[in-house]
Amino acid sequence: MKILVASSIDKDALQTLEDKHNVTKAFNANEAKLRTIICNQEVLIFRSGISLNREILAAAKKLRLIIRAGSGLDNIDLAYLKQQDIPLKRIPGPGAVAVAEMSFALMLSLARQIVVADTLLRKGRWAKNELDGHLLTGKTLGIIGAGNIGTRVGGFGKAWGMNILGCVESPASINGKHFRDHGFDLVDMETVLKTSDFVSIHVPLKETTRNLISSKELSFMKDGSFLVNLARGGVLDESALYQYLTQPGGLAGAALDVHNQEGEGKISPLSQLTNIVLTPHIGAMTIDSQRQIGQHILRIIAQFN
Length: 305
Known about the structure:
By secondary structure, the chain is an alpha/beta fold. The protein has two domains: 2-90, NAD(P)-binding Rossmann-like Domain (Rossmann fold); 94-278, Rossmann fold (3-Layer(aba) Sandwich), CATH 3.40.50.720. 39% of the residues lie in helices and 15% in strands. It contains twelve helices and twelve strands. It has helices at 11-20, 31-37, 54-59, 78-84, 93-111, 114-122, 148-159, 174-181, 189-195, 215-220, 238-246, 287-304, and strands at 2-5, 22-25, 43-46, 65-68, 88-90, 140-144, 163-167, 185-186, 198-201, 226-229, 253-256, 276-278. The strands form two sheets. A seven-stranded parallel β-sheet has the order 8-7-6-9-10-11-12, with helices on both faces. A five-stranded parallel β-sheet has the order 2-1-3-4-5, with helices on one face. The mean pLDDT is 94.
């Protein structure tokens, strides 16, 4: 089959595809290039960083299968895809584990000021008595979006000795039931924000979640609390976050793995602050997770072929 790989995937999986199929690699190609090369392709493999709009999909006259090497669907025109009756396969599991672990890496970085400590020590500053940190044990962890990733975060938090709260868009949903079945408390978002010492965001980006966390929601958060976003940049109002990170008595810190503006050369205004940790959308980027995703890709194509 003719397969277009529009995003980087596990190298062993890619080699297997190249051995068995006619593979075109176009990692992070722009829209114009994608429209040109997609026209004769039968399978498309992509991740975040690629926007599959109506124009690109309309050019894919021979497309028979799309594989999302991850979970998020905010970068594809689902309505047009459904209209054209093109199958879409997602691979949410492996990345979910990595993102859940990453949430704790970021929480620990904030709580123990690890990035600040590293920066100062590289300059010769031995700031041992200036860098008091916070324990995670015994604190309340609030999870906004208690789906696959959020529930895993709750499980890790429980093992860490944290009190777990969560909220979902529809408490009666399967996600809500699954979260409660794990012994976690399901409450409304305002209660999560007002009660939690750490808040971790794990919701998909869609119309109902765009700027879900803005100035009003940030005002609910406890003074000295921490916010972590591993969902999508559009879920969080970064201008409002800047305000609450710089005002007296506001948030103690925040960590963002996802951003409103992503890509090479983009510098966030938040980068001026010392009480924030910024990473380039690497939540799912572990060798283990990407290897597992690659294996899933091979199985999907083998079954389809």
